[in-house]
Amino acid sequence: MLSKRFYIRVVIKVLVIVVTTLAMVFLFLRGSYAISFILLLCLMVQTDLLIKYVNQNNKKIIFFFNAIKNEDFTLQFPEEGNDSSFNELNTSLNRLNNGIQKIYLQNQAQEQYNKKILNQVEIGILTFNNKGHILFSNPKMEKLLNYKPLNHIKQIQLVDQGLFNIFKKIKPFERKLFQLSNERESIQLAIKSSEIISNGELLTLITVQDIKNELDKKETDSWIKLIRVLTHEIINTVTPITSISASILNYYKDEDKILPIEELDESKIRMTAKGLEVIKDQGNDLMSFVKSYRSFLNVPAPDKALINVDKLLEKVLVLMTQNKNEHVVDITITSPEDTIEIYADEKLITQVLVNLSKNAIQALNGIENAKLELITGVNENGKKYISVKDNGPGIPPDILQQIFVPFYTTKNEGTGIGLSLSKQIMHLHGGNLTVHSILHKETVFTLLFE
Fold it and tell me: Is residue 117 part of a domain?
């Protein structure tokens, strides 16, 4: 930053001081005390001038950085009228000041831009430090909590104690659901947490989203899908009954009159018996459909206990080996070295795994080198899982969106509640059942446990 002239002048002044010192010592040793004293005074004056010369620049630089620290960019140093070395220094400081001011203004503009975006999003955002002090909260967060201004997370206790406990104990990358009720309404909140570092300080970032509308929409969509499937099944069952009943009725009526017995022949009676038999079969099918619906609605609450997953999968392997179809399927178990245990209802989870394995074996019919793999482990979020993977034809995307809808099926046989019942069982365990499929390559159903 300093010019060469400044350095040269400092060096010259130092050399003059050194020469004066040597001359003073030499004359003092020669007995010229008066001249030595005069040189000593000159030495003191030269030293003082050197210190002032250097301090003049130091004070200017310190003053400059203090102004920058206080975000004062109005400071300007004169670039003319001084010593040339100082003019060059002042020019450099002014350029640096203008550069820092430009960067500062750009950062301020970017910060304002980011704040405007955060204030417009439909998700509540809040950050707080390890002492609980809230450093930022957008208007959506204050609206969701119906409380402002938010300065400390302890204020959330005034909103709801349960919500405060979640904010206080939630771990990074964890997701929680919470129903917040007040005198106006009840809203379903999805709460997510993460960590960020700002100015060297570790902060907790909380995002809160009202998912009530999304849940209502998904619930409506689910009802529409369910009603569509129920309507399809009921119409398919009732239509033949209506048609056959009308045909039988025509055997015994002529317009609005009942035909006399003597006009009935043996063929009409036989057709009547066959028609009634079909009506009976259709009625039984409809009763089976209703019973399956009842079983779907009456899943028992899980009787949970600690289960060794390896032993559970070995049990499923034995069951599937005994019940395999005629086509050959290679069934294997893949598990980590460490034993995994889950807290679940063994009977219900076995039911889910057997159902998924049976579906996989059916899908593998006609596939060369058919393989079914039961996989267990812990994912990157620390959740334990069991996957049922096959190398079958896969599931088309349009069907993939429907497979968990109750009573939806692409098979000629079956009620279509197996997958939806399995998903419900996993929800009762606080977990989830997901599916991933690639056509002509693989299908993977995964049981996720909390």
Answer: no
